[in-house]
Each structure stands twice: as C-alpha cells, then as structure tokens.
From TrEMBL:
GO cellular component: membrane
Keyword Transcription regulation in record: no
Organism for this UniProt entry: Shewanella psychrophila
Record domain ABC transporter: where: 4-235
Name of the featured protein: ABC-type cobalt transport system, ATPase component
C-alpha cells in the first residue's frame, strides 16, 4: 500500500496565504474528489503532492514506494502521476505517446503492448493512432493523456479537471478508463468543480474552503454497486 501524506502545510505565494492543511492522505484504493472554487488552490495542491512545487512550510512524505534511485534528489517526483487539464504530450504520433513511458513501467512488455492496443480502442483513437499528437483537438489530447495513464496503471494518479474540454461521448470514454483504474486499485485525486458521474466514483471528498482543506467520506459509492456501461445515459457527465 502506498501513501502520500501532507501534514501541517502552509502554502503562500509571495505574502498571500493560499491555504493551510492539518493533514491529508492520498492512498492506493481511494478515489477522492477535490472540490473548491476557481483560484482556491486545487492545481497547487496537486502540484505539491506531485513534488512539482514545495510548500511554504510543512511536510509531504511518501510511504510504501521502492527506494529512490541515487540520481533522484526530489523524493516526491514520480510517485503520483499528475495530469494537467491541458496535458503535456510528446512530439510524435498518438501511438508513440502511449509507448513512450513503457520503459519506466514494471509491467511486462507483452502486457504493455496489449494494454496499449486496448487503450487506443478505449480512447477511440484507433483512426488517429499514426497522427501527430500535436494535431489533436483539446478533448482528444485529454483522452490520449488519460489512456497513457491507463496503460501505465500508476499506483497514484491526480487528474486536474479531467473532463474539461470534453463532449459527453469523450466523458463517457474517460469515465470507463477511470473506473477500470479504480477497480485495479489506483489511488486517485480528481479535481472537478461540479459533482458528476466521474466524481460519483469517489469515496472521499476534499473541499478547499476558507483557505483550508476539509476532508469527508462519501456515503455511497455507486461504482461498487453498478458496473459502468458507457452506453448508459445515467453516466453521461454534466457539463
Ligand atoms: N506560481 C504562482 N505564483 C503566484 N501565484 C500563483 C502561482 N500559481 C498559482 N498562483 C495563484 O494561486 C491561486 C490558486 O491557483 P490554482 O491554479 O491552484 O487554483 P485552482 O483551484 O486550481 O483554480 P481553477 O479552478 O480556476 O483551475 C490563484 O490565485 C493563482 O493565481
């Protein structure tokens, strides 16, 4: 079981305090909805947990991961995969982007090849697989980035507004991929302004309000009671 634990955090930009956190924990097997108004600090919190930013004070610790390679000085980098709402893609084709992280995976080559083929189909990118990733639309880019994460099956994944830019059909495709990652046990932090089908997969909520973060458990998790059918209209995500 892997965990990222943030304790006694204060985050400021210049003199402005953005938020404080007593303690939050992102763990394998948990799916957390991160809520908060525009500018409240959702992206900043994800970047802190990903090791891309340092808190003004406090500690973020990683538990249960393999020991660091000698050349890696930042102990948080690479622990939780962070997907920005405008995801970074490599120069090259759609398929190249899906294959690029293979060398960093613990999965076997066979399994990675199989998963890559399935991911292309799940993300409905088959007809575009040789096309330059840079030429994709915003929604297609997000689908590709989530498909890439699905192939890698990370232990922890943070999705920043994953369905912004997406039409309902794309949202359904993403929902199916996220649901599978959840079944596999990937711990996820999903930021979204609104409650929707995606956030109904969550079993915990972190709310950034009044410059602090409150955590609460959700009463039910529909994903555990009803398997997702992407044709099923109840799982269409509201814009
Ligand atoms: N590097 C930075 N330097 C100074 N201020 C910053 C920096 N990064 C973010 N901020 C400020 O911190 C605040 C929180 O930004 P953040 O992007 O984390 O909010 P958010 O909750 O993700 O917003 P949104 O819902 O609009 O995406 C904003 O006011 C932003 O301008």
């Amino acid at each position: 079981m892997v965990n990222l634990i943030a304790q006694n955090i204060e985050m400021c930009f210049d003199e402005r305090q953005l938020f404080t956190i007593d303690r939050v924990q992102l763990s394998e097997g948990k799916t957390i909805h991160l809520q908060g108004d525009n500018g409240s600090g959702k992206t900043t919190l994800m970047k802190l947990l990903a090791g891309l930013l340092k808190p003004s004070s406090g500690t973020i610790t990683a538990e249960g991961f393999a020991p660091l390679p000698w050349w890696r000085s930042n102990p948080l980098l690479g622990k939780a995969v962070y997907l920005h709402q405008h995801p970074y893609l490599f120069d090259g084709s759609v398929e190249y982007n899906l294959r690029y992280p293979h060398p960093f995976s613990d999965l076997s080559t066979n399994e990675l090849n199989q998963r890559t083929q399935i991911a292309i189909e799940m993300a409905q990118l088959t007809h575009l697989h040789k096309q330059a990733a840079s030429s994709l639309s915003g929604g297609e880019r997000q689908r590709l980035a989530i498909a890439r994460a699905w192939v890698m099956r990370p232990k922890l994944l943070m999705l920043d507004e994953p369905t912004s830019n997406m039409d309902k059909y794309s949202q359904q495709l993403v929902l199916a991929m996220i649901n599978e990652l959840q079944e596999f046990g990937t711990g996820m932090l999903i930021s979204s302004h609104q409650s929707c089908a995606l956030t109904s997969l969550c079993n915990q909520t972190w709310i950034i309000k009044d410059r602090t973060i409150v955590s609460s458990s959700a009463a039910i998790n529909p994903a555990k009671t009803a398997p997702i059918n992407i044709q099923d209209s109840q799982y269409v995500i509201a814009n």
